[in-house]
Amino acid sequence: MKVTILGCGGSAGVPSIGGSEDPDQPAGKWGACDPYEIRNRRTRSSIVIEQAGFRLLVDSGPDLRQQLLANHLARVDALIFTHGHSDHIAGLDEVRAINRVIRKPLPLLATEDVLQELQARFSYAFRPWEGGQFYRAAFDVQPIPEAGNIQIGPLHGSVFPQTHGLIESRGMRFGDFAYSTDVAELPAPSLEMLKGVKTWVVGCFQPEQHFSHGWLARVLEWREIVQPQRLVLTHMGPAMDYATLKRTLPTGVEPAFDGMTLEISSS
User: Fold this and answer.
1) Quick one: which of 10, 4, 94 has its CA closest to 44?
2) I want to staple 35 with a disulfide (CB 3.0 to 4.6 A). Which of 26, 99, 128, 240 is the partner?
3) What CA–CA distance (Å, rounded) separates 231 from 228?
4) Residue 266 and residue 58: Cα distance in Å, rounded?
5) Pick from 141, 173, 162: nearest CA to 83
6) From CA 198, how far away is CA 29, in angstroms rounded?
7) What angle do CA 74, 77, 80 make, to 5 degrees?
8) Domain definitions of the chain by residue range
């Protein structure tokens, strides 16, 4: 299995809009992140999971077009959503280009509450497909449970609930790989489902405690419970400088960067 980190930033990305308008200075607000370290330049969080030539896109944020182009990914075969926040769904219109490549509606998987949010915001994309040109995105909608087993092409796995502030998001596990973005609390059954995973990509927005996102001490607590061989931090905000994290994180823990690839061997 191969996993590509399309983006590993928070809802505003790094840098965020603002900062100096001096053309001789780096644009945007960087916080503690070194603007001259390319791995601090983060688009909104998303990944592609690939197995046996089948590609599953996880979330379609507002940077989707540039992410797919940057990673030379001309197509995906299905799309699954972790939750309905804008930084994870706002690029849904870009899927029209994927429809044109695969020449059919794209399988779209989400829980019922996320499907309702998508249909409210992108109602035109969820009208029945009647063939012809893809002048809009088109989907083969497949509801998934809030917790339990799922199958997507050759990928057999499970989804589990995560507390994300006032809402729930979905984590997912496929074999020895798991993905948990936008998570501040993990219920005991979800932690149990994660045990034994080898590679875990998990959201860690900042060093200090946060209401709706994982923070460094909390994520390291989860690590002690789950015991992954490799823990990769994603959904990182402007307080998470790449070089500082590489220098100070424990062995087996590392920050992601846009374009990072992970190879996960089968057990």
Assistant:
1) 10
2) 26
3) 6
4) 21
5) 162
6) 35
7) 115
8) 2-17+28-263
> Where does 79-232 have alpha helices with state H?
86-89, 95-102, 112-121, 188-194, 216-226
In whole angstroms, what is the distance from residue 235 CA to residue 172 CA? 16
Buried b (16+ CB within 10 A) or exposed e, 74-100: eebbbbbbbbbbebbbbbbbbbbebbe
Q: Which of 193, 154, 153, 197 is nearest to 170 (CA)?
A: 193
Please report, to the nearest 10 degrees, the dihedral formed by the alpha carbons of residues 264, 160, 182, 44 taken in order: 50
Of 3, 38, 14, the residue nearest 236 (C-alpha)? 14
Minimal CA–CA distance to 249: which of 213, 214, 223, 210? 223
**Could you tell me which residues are beta bridge partners of residue 157?**
150
pLDDT tens-digit profile, the chain (267 residues)? 999 999 999 999 999 999 999 999 999 999 999 999 999 999 999 999 999 999 999 999 999 999 999 999 999 999 999 999 999 999 999 999 999 999 999 999 999 999 999 999 999 999 999 888 899 999 999 999 999 999 999 999 999 999 999 999 999 999 999 999 999 999 999 999 999 999 999 999 999 999 999 999 999 999 999 999 999 999 999 999 999 999 999 999 999 999 999 999 876
Give residues with Cβ within 8 angstroms of 109, minimum separation 6: 78, 79, 80, 81, 142, 143, 144, 150, 152
Number of alpha carbons in the 13 Å side-chain half-sphere of residue 137: 24
How, if at all, do strands 261-263 and 253-255 pair? unpaired
Q: 2-17+28-263 has which CATH code?
A: 3.60.15.10
Length of the chain: 267
